[in-house]
Write a structure and sequence with these properties.
single chain; 115 residues; mainly beta; 10-stranded parallel sheet
């Protein structure tokens, strides 16, 4: 069986905790990151940084959910949710009414409303 014979994968793209990527990550679908990314992440849908996820670079997506650690600027086109264990160090842009911050989250940066 060749890779062209395999059925298409449904569901999010997943980077597990023992993997590291250096460079640019792009996906048309949902992305779940529980590993380490050194570089930019761009997604046309939802980007989730899991509890063990670490990103050192920019993030741009429609919906962004952070439970792990992010060092870099972030832009959410629709919604940004920062969970209670999250650490975000960088400026972030989100539309009015699209920011959810859970108690216990650590933020170092400025929030700018999307234009």
């Amino acid at each position: 069986m060749s890779t062209t014979d395999l059925p298409p994968i449904q569901g999010p793209s997943y980077l597990e905790e023992h993997l590291t990527i250096e460079g640019t990550v792009f996906s048309q679908g949902n992305i779940y990151i529980n590993g380490h990314v050194e570089g930019a992440i761009t997604g046309a849908s939802e980007i989730v940084i899991g509890e063990k996820g670490f990103v050192h670079g920019t993030i741009q997506g429609k919906v962004v959910v952070i439970e792990g650690q992010v060092e870099g600027d972030l832009k959410a086109a629709k919604e940004l949710e920062i969970l209670h264990k999250a650490q975000l160090e960088g400026d972030f842009t989100v539309p009015r009414g699209g920011l959810i911050i859970h108690q216990g989250a650590v933020l170092k940066g400025q929030c700018r409303p999307a234009s």
